[in-house]
Amino acid sequence: MDNIKVLLVDDHQIIRDGIRALLSYTEGIEVVGECSNGLEAVDSANSEEPDVILMDINMPKINGIDATKRIVADNPECKILVLTVHDELAYISKMLHAGAIGYVLKTANKNELITAIKSVSKGEKYFSPEVTETMLSRFIDGHKPNSDVEEKELTIREIEVLVLISTELTNAEIGDKLCISTRTVDAHRRSLLSKLGARNTAGLVAYAIKNKFLD
After folding, report:
1. Are 5 and 52 in contact, with CB atoms under 8 Å apart?
2. Is residue 215 part of a domain?
């Protein structure tokens, strides 16, 4: 099996050095280049053809959001994994809409970063636990859903499950995050399908996107 080719994009040399050193001891992953700004990342995505790009957000010349949009448009097979200090919903939303499929905080440990790289290389979404909590936070502590959600009479727990389904987590993974059983998650999933008139998971995800649950 070929190595996963990774491109590092961060405007801090010490960060790139640290990640390169960390990944150099990881079997199956190869760092094929480094970039200090978004413009370099766009060029290197074309020349190096990486499988995964570890993308920072705040950078000179072109930021990570704009760079991601350009890279995904030109190289749809390249997967963007955000690696940043920002856990704010606005940044998460902008990067996901730009085309990133993973979002990891720089507080992550080696194992989490490697897991994230391997996941997104296969086209799977990956979010740090803190990022998932941020995505859920808009629906708790006094959040008021829009009128369409109110008409469907979704509970807060169903909304939480819907958001996590939209991040492509399994029932078991959703159960772990919400501290409920897999059987309970499945019950919420079936309830969502019924209330929203969806035929499958794709229908649930489409509803979540339409109603901007991940904004």
Report:
1. yes
2. no
